[in-house]
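In the laboratory, one determines a bound structure by crystallizing the protein with its ligand and collecting diffraction data. In a computational setting the workflow is compressed into a single prediction: the sequence and the ligand go in, and a structural description comes out. We illustrate the idea with zinc ion.
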Amino acid sequence: MWSVSFNFHERFEIVTPVNVASMELGQVAFHLLALDSADAAEVNGFLETYRCGVIFHDGKKVSADRLPAILPLEQAILRQFVKTVLLVPPSERWAVDVPPSKRLAVFCHLNPHRELIRRRFERIIMTPSTTTRREVFGWKKSRIKEQLEEWSSAWEKREEQPDLLKQVLTEWESYAWRYRTNDLLAIPWLELHLLAEHNIFVRECPSCRRYFVPRPVNTMYCSKCRQDGSRQRNYWQQKWMNMSDEEKEAKRKRDREHKRLMRQIKRLHAEGYSGQEIARLVGKEEWWVQQRLRGKRSSRKGQ
Ligand SMILES: [Zn+2]
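The predicted complex, in structure-token form:
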């Protein structure tokens, strides 16, 4: 049995029978999509990572040895989902400015494998649960320590001061669904649908061709390739060198305008305007504004 939760730090937590790990968004899906079904070592590595011995095929339990045989179809449908629903820039023209949650209908009505996906979701049990709220930490390490001390002290005093514990708990935790499944291949479908639900985009890394969730949304390369070298910087340097003076001036102007817009969005957000109101004021779609606000926060987290 695997347990999965999408928490307020916008990470998935996956709990396997023996270990607990906080995972990147879409990790199981992107790992599965990167597998070469003809490479037995790679497929076994995947199964071992998640300690998986049994998989489901056509609704029936089969040995995990069968994975290479069913992998190509599963990958093809998952890839279709990413391309239709989650990709930025989108793979098709109609999807420009259409957020993932709204692109989903196109996939649902046009893909002929609804039955396969329905069966995967049948094996997932949803349980209401709570998860630590991101705003509790404010991304600072010192704050986490402070909060942990506050928590233990409230817990120790729970007999004399029951209201203190109640107050701390309501400050700390918020509502979240926890998903449990004994079908490892249900997890990629769950992950991709959660990304769509939360309007989180996916990008294909131009270097290694793997999918990843770009944070902020204009990140070009996956974290692995960014660690491998400063490819992204090289890419922009190269591009800049090849630009004509007019193109450079146009880019500078775009950058200035973008920065001005970002400052305006940040200011309005700080003044307490909602995403919807900000979108109306700056003349953009609400999801676009939400992505920018989210991107700002996650780039701060990375510092
Ligand atoms: Zn990469």
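The first helix runs from residue 27 to 34. Keep in mind that any predicted model is a hypothesis to be tested, not a measurement.
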